[in-house]
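Contributing: when you submit paired examples, paste them exactly as shown. First protein:
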Amino acid sequence: MNIDSWKAEWIWAEGTGNENNIYVEARQSFELTVPFTKALVRISANQSYKLYINGIEAGRGPAPSDLLWMSFDTHDVATLLRNGRNCIAVAAHNFGKDKIVTEQLQGPGGLICQLDVYGADDQGANLLTVASSSEWKCRRSPRWKTGVSRLHMWGGYRELMDVSREDGWECEDYDDSSWPPAEVIAAAEQENSPWPRLVARDIPYLQENLVSPVTVVSAESLLGSIQTPEAQLAADTAEGRGPVVMDASIPGSFPQITYDFGAEIVGYPELEVIADEGGVLQLFYGESLELDLRDTYLLRKGVNKITPFGRRAFRYLKVGVMATPVPLRICDLRVRFVHYPYKDGGHFRSSDDKLNRIWEVGRYTTMVNSQNHFEDCPYREGALWVADSVVMAKVVYQTFNDARLVRKSLLQAAKIQNDDGSIPGTGPQRNAYLLPDFCAHWLFGAAEYYDYTKDRAFLEELWPYIVKLAAWFTEQEDDAGLFANADRDGMWCFIDWSDEIHREDRVTAVSCFYYKFLHTAAALAFELGEEESGNSFTHQAAELRKSVRNLLRIPNTAIYADCLNGDGLSSSITAQTNFAAAWSGIMDEEEISVFLQEYYLKGRLPQIRGAFFYHIVLETLFRYGYAADAVRIIRNYWGDMLDRGATTWWETFDPNLPFSTTPSPYLGHTPTYLEDAVPVSLCHGWGASPTYLLNRELLGIDISKAGHGQVTLRPSAVAEVEWAEGSVVTRYGKISAQWKRDVDGVYRFEAHLPAQMTWKAPGLRDISVSTDQDRVHVRGTVPVHEAAPKRTPLVDCSG
């Protein structure tokens, strides 16, 4: 059976093209009179849709994408069709042209939908096509009120819905004769269309689970009354749930219940409310108890089935009611929790319960931020930031064994490449956010994906983008080959969330990342047989390393200044700059030891507060034999977050601030201090690095070369941990390992891995190997790593 070409057109509600925050409803009825075996709906919208077949919800989407590469979904709807009259109906929403900080959610409103029905004969012939066109009916929805305000400048609008305006428009027996015809915006896949390409969904649909709140934080009557506020909590419901009764019949009363779901979730609240005489219900959301009003419902008399059209991200949900002439009853309150459908993968446990909790919170944070692409924070913006994706990908490799979301996220970043060859730091829609270090991180992520999967088709597809990006980097060089003018207008030289890094002109960390970029590009070129490019990149890298070492290093030291400008080397010296030099290969091993022992571990540099940059710090410490110090940092930095109530990792964190804080715009955890327009993220996947490092480095199962069929067994036993055990799942099967300190003080290690994998065990002593059936068993002893003495800061080198 062949899927027919697109016959559908992009449509929208007439006369709404220049307005913001538009909801439309479109429908078409049709007859089915012959037997059929398959029925597929292909559908997309800018920016979101809900599909109904005969009044039953059949799907929502699409995956966010750039307008030039518009993603579409395919839904099998055969079980929802019937002989006789049928109806296909779509509700869709468009953000409009309002300003948004990350420049996402842009473009005109449009939806495209095509149903193809196939016969029962051997050929599976196409019996019927129902394609969106001017013959469809389409109206501006009467349910959502206009003129509502924005929640903040990173996201969309609040929703204000009049539930009494629901009229059964989704159903097949609805009379739409008074509706206007749809306005055709463009034909499918036309070059001059706002959406010239339609790209089939290339990852599974999101997993959906109904979850209930775990506790009631507060139930405040506020002149009204509340009965049984705990009735909708997660519990044994064998006897059924009773209703929550809320009464706001006293003038001015506003009873409210705040629920805690235990950790951040992403999805769609669903409530069933019986309001015999109507009233108003509002929903407030927050990652912390700084809650924001997002949804308001004008209830109709009787039963109200309530769910927002837009996705929500929150830990706390407050329900408030007002103007209820008689008490209303909340008979059901749950959330349809959505995330990428990872299968059960690896695990980690140790004698240190805090490390175990840190591993699990990182796993969960990554899962919550795994939606239709990797997201940097689902509450604030849900955008596809490059650096966040690269860190979360490492967690996926060591934890989940499903790299399809990694592949998609890397390709989406490539497809919004700028004309000059640079790649925006965020997406998935093209924008002006140019972060030079993120351009390099994108390639690091692509190379790591290739090593993990050996996905040659991916590498071949990406190669033209890599070549173009390399040419852009070359264009940024000064006469010595350094990356220059990094503080120019329109460029955000990020490095890390820190005001202490000086970033003028030739920024050392950027040139260090550029050096690593060139080495990475050379390796990929040789992999593809592009010998000339590989040799050129290798030569460039060697020349750049000389320049960085000669021009950016403080004379007669192993340490690098933050930058070089017209006045010479900056006076500022930061840990971030020097870790960038160590991690990228600019420093040699002796210099790395001097930097770590004499500067970083003695506390002579400003403290790092950004959870993202710690992945570079920790990888460097583990790589050069400072495992105990790495574990100490994990336990202290992330453990302090746990002690302060974190259930997902925060975007940034300063442990020196007062203990009783959760990050907030008012509490100084980021450079956005006292800018209340910037919502601080309490669920940020870029801080999940301990999860992959505990499996890969502490336990010692490194599958970063799994695409080559290789595993490296390199446990890092530390004196503070008595034992560790866990597993990692690969396409070859599960690898499990454990080590523990025996009564004689010796740390003994064993691993069990699929026989078809090759392995090496650097640092493991007294190795013995046995096999049985399709498994290999490796045993040995592990040298213990001792932490450097903890020191207090001696010198502030921040300048």
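Second protein:
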Amino acid sequence: MPLDTSKNNQKIPVNPGEVLFIGGKASTSMNILHEGSVRVETTLGDTSIVLYSLEGANLTPGIFALLEGTPYPYTIRAKTSCVVSTYVMNQANAKKTLTTKVSVGVMAVRTLLKEIGELYKRVLSIKGLSSKFEQTMDNLGAVYYILNPSIFSDVTPGAMITRDENIIDPVMKLIRNNLAGFQEHGGMLPDKPTINFLEEDHGEFFEKDYSESIEWNDAEFHFIRKILSVNPKISQALFEADPTLLQSAAESYVKTYRELFELLSKETYDLSEMMNSMFVGENALLEKFNLTLDLFNTGYSTIPSTVLLPITEWALKKSKSLLDEYKQIFGTNYASVGNSLDKLESKQSELTAKYGHELTAQKNKEEAIAQGGDPIRAGIDTKALKVELLNSASQILNYSQADPEAVKEFSTLMVKLKSFKNPLDPEPDNRKIRRTIAKTYWDVYKKSFTKWLQSGKQAPKAVELMLRYGYFDETLLDDGHIVELVGRLYQPGGNPSAPIHHGTDWLEKIYSREVPTSVDELGQTFFEKLKMDLKDSGIKSEKDIPPDYDTGDARLGSEISSMYEPNVRLTSGNIASHFPILTKYHITIPLEKCFVSKDDVEKALQYILGIDYTAFNREVIYRNEDIGIKNEFIQRSIIPDFILVPSIGPKIMMWQDLSIFRGAGSKESRGRICIPHFVTGDLKTFMLEAIAAFRWELCKNILGPDWNNVGIPSITADYTDYVQFYKKSKDLSPELKEKISSEFKRFRTDRDKFAYDYSLWIRYEAEGVQRVNRVVRSIFYRHIPFHKNIREKISSQPAYAELHNRFKNIRTRQHKEFENKYKKYMDASGNLPKELYENLTFYEV
């Protein structure tokens, strides 16, 4: 029986386990706990949970419901023997009491503060478990598809996966839509699933945030908390001087408690839904793995035991771990788990015993490969390599002859960093240590590069690995990683047709003045910064720079600090956890899978140019006074420089659309695109994003102030107009407008929105699969035409037919005009200069 609060001003002893107030009943009293402790518990859906306990004297259990004027959202039960006083009161009287009896008001606000803190901890624990479940389900879903690619009959192996909202099985629909997003965002599914893949965070590809924290920035809450934390005499005097502060604090805390309670309900519901999807019913995710094991056991599956059984073992252990965490949070086992987990454990035990010899053989094979048993590692003596790279950090620091004091601090911080469980943790103190280390690292890098260059490119292997890959300390990598790096270091670089450079080759070109220096993050050039440093010297042009200032070493230093260092940071994809030194914590997929060679870049580039053949085109001026050509505008494709920087991550940076910004030849200069040497995702997808950014910025640069002038049609003008006015478009349905509005919320700039649509255009629309809306399709068909063979293939489809005819008519007319214009430039044999012939060919359809 709950307490009878109808009698006013009563002091009641309560035995352990007795209910004081029942959830759902009206709150009609102010209650003061004099001694003992109470437990606050509630039921959310079918799930019961103890929220927190209140212990000690001068607390007001249930004050939230009284001040909010609502029934108790929880049940309050005696945890130990208690003594409680109750005072009959309604909401209005309670609020008045807060200001007339300051001691009671302070007691109530302190209680609310304590309850909010405890409730926040409970929400965090459930949010953390929910995030772990979501990540586990998403990763297991992707692995299930890798093991059983035939589950989607309309998807051919290796093809792009599209979303399908019509799938009845909710788990299969989740898997399908997750995979579509995974591919769209550059995710790269492994050929066969691995434990590493299952344990990694692929949220950026799945469009998920697996954060275990919640956003909470209530300034008023924290302000009152600070007041309450000072000396009680001071806070009491403050509230007595202005009692309305207490009422304001109480109202704020009641609002915060309600928000947290609703968040608790949502997180608990989401967790319950995920756990049901994982464990409950014939469509549960674990049941799908049970079926996979059954097919394997009966011989209907061709999946090797060495691939399947480690995956199902991981799924079993992970499930048990998550269920144990659930029990710790809720105080009881998850009631609806069913028998799917027991079945998985039974099948796993049986098959592990049956195929134990194969699993053992595979483990031995992997160990042999780690010791140099594959083509990349062939000929590498692992033991000798370990000796050669012993104390790599000391070797590099000694080679660079860096400042002794800086090296001393650097070494101390490296020791501290290596003591952390994860050196890449985004926690502020860790970030501060990494920033300090990075500052010395880049000074060491520059000095080492200069010495390496001047000594005929001869240096200890540790130094060469640092210059190429960002290696620094052998203890921060596994043995297999180091062997992989060394094996790749001396591989032939390939002979790509495009200007693709290793980072060290690029820095050498800068040092020797073969190419101009890059701009920094603020867009300043080497000359502009030097001019600013020497503002009293009267420098007006680059020719005026004193030779002592414009040296190869100065240009190298500028390039490293302006372009190289920022791009190593930006290509890592996560600024909060960035660290320029390569560690095993960076490596989320096997190193050999994310290694990028010049040939890899060339293949990805040719794939894109095979679809978007005008990707790097611009209009430039052609002059040939020998045959009377003073100024002719022609189309020209100028492929940018691609630079492989010592970084690992899921981002390719378009750094510059031009390398010369003023004067003759500026519009014909190459852009600069930086690629991490290890790409943790799909290289083609990231290249598409970078080339989309290049297209956008080049168009803005070429057109200047008219880049968004719809009177002068261009990619940027037409697409910006679409972004601004799509809600008024007659060509788009209300449902589609709502979908576009939702999609646009994911992107920060118009360029980002354009890059997303551009990726869909190249990956899907080029295959005749409609993924952009008709307005975007019209803009892109005009400004980003497909290669001729693709246009001919899709032109018969209704969605493209009218666009194709319009494009064909415009290009035919342009071609005719140029053909007539160029007749006067033909030689006696009827031939045109190469530049004019190529321009005429450009307009052929």
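If you have annotations for the second protein, write them as plain sentences, like these:
The chain has a mean pLDDT of 87.
The two ends are 87 Å apart (CA to CA).
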